[in-house]
Write a structure and sequence with these properties.
The complex is a heterodimer. By secondary structure, chain A is an alpha+beta fold. Chain A has twelve helices and 18 strands. Helices cover 48% and strands 24% of the residues of chain A. Chain B is of the alpha/beta class. Helices cover 56% and strands 15% of the residues of chain B. In chain B, strand 4, helix 4 and strand 5 form a beta-alpha-beta unit. The chains are: A alpha+beta, B alpha/beta.
Chain lengths: 523, 165
């Protein structure tokens, strides 16, 4: 029974085995290891070869392959027998319809009931090959795609001591394929070493971070680094590199242009402010000019009448005296005495009147010559005349308080705008007078020094503090308190002297006084 | 000036003075009356002065520059039209010398005097003006005499020709 049972079991086992072989999708050939001829073939084998079972069984297994593959088939079989272990290879095969396909052929030596057999399993690999080709094409496509990117792309394996470069696209290679980089051995993943400054780092919204790397050779790269998991679920570092050299250069240029522009704007603003000051000054002078013209006319008419009348008095008294000398009225000594007293007192006052008239006339003339109404254009003048006119006008400031010492050296007439130069003298003289708190001296010196007409106005006033000295020619700077000065006086002085091609220098000692030195080209 | 100079021939004649300020006219009139024998005709209005000049024989005219109705330059230009031989003087308190000089050239002034004026200068200028006027008159007279003589000569010439031909 037991034998029967065993036989039964064996039979069942063989049945299962046979069914499995029959059911298999792969073509399976059972080959006698000694002869190499096929003993058994399953259904798939018949379909694959397109032959009847009688046509297969008994034939050497390698003869199933096309002629050009038979040697390899034979070798495959021999190897399987010799090495007693499985081996897999790809073989060409011609299907019954004439189509050539690739087979994955696996051969293995087995022992079955003491008998050596070789099992050869053939699987149609066409689809798999096609899939692999597709995969390869896809992979190439992606690579081309990445190569075509305008940015460099590099992938390194997860961060460890020596990260391995897994991929770099063509753009990235080209970027660092320059003579400069090669010369200094710079590569994209090691370029940090050659940086001449700290990278500018910015963390972006999506968690990647960007940094700008500037090489000593001037090249600038923007690195954007992010992390992704690779096919093996390992972290790797994806670096996108953009050449920022040109852009950085442009930005730098732009910055430079901006700075230049800003400087130019400031310059223009300053010029405009100066022009404005000048204009305001010119307007002031013009209105002063017409004012002076009006005042001169208004004063001169009654003054003319007064001086003429006074002159008439003087002449009349002379005649009267002559008449009286020959008249009988004055033969009486007492009477003559009384007449003389009256006439003498009239003489006295008419002489005072004459002096007073002269003085009014001088003031009006000074005013006129100060404003130079008759000469608002460039003219050759002796600036000592201007100094004198101006002194007449500021005499009320100086009277009994400030002594004016004139040390006029010989100077030639110079080409200038006399009214502007007088304005300068006016400002300097008034300032000097204000600097003298109680009593003091203003010394005016003129000289010709090597092609320059020099005018020095010195005072014995309070002087200018050292920290203030550099600012005194700035427009709007004043020490006189709001409402007293405009702060424009000295800036106008400076401007006028500059316009005349001259220089103005100031030296001052607090407590001792100040000297303004004007140098004008004598030409 | 001495009393004897009153008889000076150069100190007689008619002078017309125009100024919109009465005080100037009074001063000038008084002074000239004291010092000269000129007949002084003074006017506050240039137009009235023109009427007088048109109707009377005068020797010198002197005018202010700035006047409301008609300025001194326009006035003297009118005088030049009526009596070109009369010396024209402007007396001004106006300070714009450039304009004044331009005006002088335009109107052909004899003299330009600034206010306040000097009486001695004024006397000399007026006397020179009068002298010029007198000489001009004399010249005119001579020209007329020459013309008359020429006319006579012409007549004589004709008669001679008539007689001999």
């Amino acid at each position: 029974m037991s034998t029967n049972n065993e036989i039964e079991k064996l039979r069942e086992s063989e049945e299962r085995y046979r069914t499995m072989i029959e059911m298999a999708c792969d073509a399976i050939f059972v080959v006698d290891a000694e002869s190499g001829s096929v003993c058994e073939v399953n259904q798939s084998g018949l379909i694959m070869t397109g032959l009847a079972i009688e046509e297969i069984v008994g034939r050497p297994v390698w003869e199933l392959f096309p002629e050009d593959e038979r040697d390899r088939g034979r070798e495959l079989f021999d190897t399987a027998v010799r090495e007693e272990r499985g081996r897999r290879t790809s073989m060409h095969f011609v299907r019954p319809d004439g189509g050539r396909v690739t087979l994955d052929v696996t051969t293995a030596l087995m022992r079955l009931s003491g008998r050596k057999i070789v099992v050869q399993v053939c699987r149609d690999a066409t689809e798999r090959d096609e899939f692999e080709r597709q995969q390869a094409r896809l992979s190439q496509y992606y690579e081309r795609l990445l190569d075509s990117l305008p940015v460099g792309l590099g992938i390194r394996a997860a961060i460890n001591a020596t990260p391995k470069i897994e991929f770099e696209n063509q753009t990235l290679k080209r970027m660092f394929d320059t003579a400069a980089c090669k010369g200094s051995g710079i590569t994209w993943d090691a370029c940090r070493a050659d940086m001449d400054e700290q990278p500018r780092i910015a963390i972006t919204d999506d968690g990647s971070y960007a940094e700008e790397r500037r090489l000593a050779n001037g090249q600038t790269f923007l690195y954007t680094i992010s992390y992704v998991r690779d096919l093996l679920d390992q972290w790797c570092e994806v670096t996108i590199v953009q050449d920022f050299t040109r852009r950085r250069q442009l930005e730098d240029d732009l910055e430079q242009v901006n700075r230049t522009l800003e400087a130019r704007v400031q310059e223009r603003t300053r010029e405009l402010e100066e022009k404005q000051t000048q204009l305001a000054q010119a307007e002031k002078m013009a209105s002063l000019g017409s004012l002076v013209a009006g005042v001169a006319h208004e004063i001169n008419t009654p003054l003319g009448a007064l001086t003429s009348n006074n002159d008439l008095f003087i002449r009349a008294i002379v005649r009267l005296k002559k008449l009286l000398d020959t008249s009988e009225v004055t033969s009486d000594a007492a009477m003559k005495e009384r007449f003389d007293r009256i006439l003498d007192s009239i003489d006295e006052v008419t002489s005072v009147n004459k002096t007073a008239g002269e003085r009014i006339k001088n003031i009006v003339n000074s005013l006129r010559s100060f404003a130079r109404l008759d000469r608002s254009e460039k003219d050759r003048v002796d600036i000592r005349d201007g100094l004198e006119s101006t002194l007449t006008l500021v005499s009320h400031e100086l009277k009994n308080r400030v002594e004016v010492v004139r040390r006029y050296g010989d100077i030639p007439p110079i080409n200038c705008f006399p009214n502007q130069i007088n304005q300068v003298f006016m400002n300097l003289l008034v300032n000097a007078s204000h600097a003298i708190k109680d009593k003091g001296v203003i010394t005016i010196r003129t000289a010709l020094e090597g092609g320059w007409v020099v005018v020095e106005i010195s005072d014995t006033g309070s002087g200018i503090p050292k920290d203030v000295l550099p600012k005194i020619f700035d427009p709007g700077f004043t020490t006189k308190g709001s409402g007293v000065g405009t702060g424009l006086g000295l800036s106008i002085v400076h401007q006028i002297i500059q316009d005349h091609g001259g220089k103005i220098l100031v030296t001052s000692k607090p407590g001792e006084g100040t000297t303004f030195r004007i140098e004008l080209p004598a030409r | 000036m001495t009393a004897s100079s009153n008889t000076d021939a150069g100190r007689s004649g008619t002078i017309v003075i125009v100024d919109d300020e009465e005080m100037v006219l009074t001063s000038l009139r008084s002074f000239l009356t004291l010092e000269t024998d000129y007949e002084v005709q003074s006017f506050l209005s240039a137009k009235e002065a023109l009427q007088y000049i048109g109707a009377n024989d005068i020797d010198v005219v002197m005018s202010d520059y700035l006047m409301p109705e008609m300025d001194g330059i326009s006035f003297l230009a009118e005088v030049k039209k009526i009596r070109p031989e009369v010396p024209r003087i402007i007396l001004t308190g106006y300070a714009d010398k450039e304009n004044a000089i331009k005006a002088i050239n335009d109107v052909g002034l004899f003299q330009y005097i600034e206010k306040p004026w000097d009486n001695d200068d004024l006397l000399i200028i007026l006397r020179n003006g009068m002298e010029k006027q007198r000489l001009m008159k004399k010249l005119q007279q001579k020209i007329e005499e020459i013309n008359r003589a020429y006319g006579e000569l012409e007549g004589l010439h004709k008669e001679i020709v008539k007689t001999f031909v």
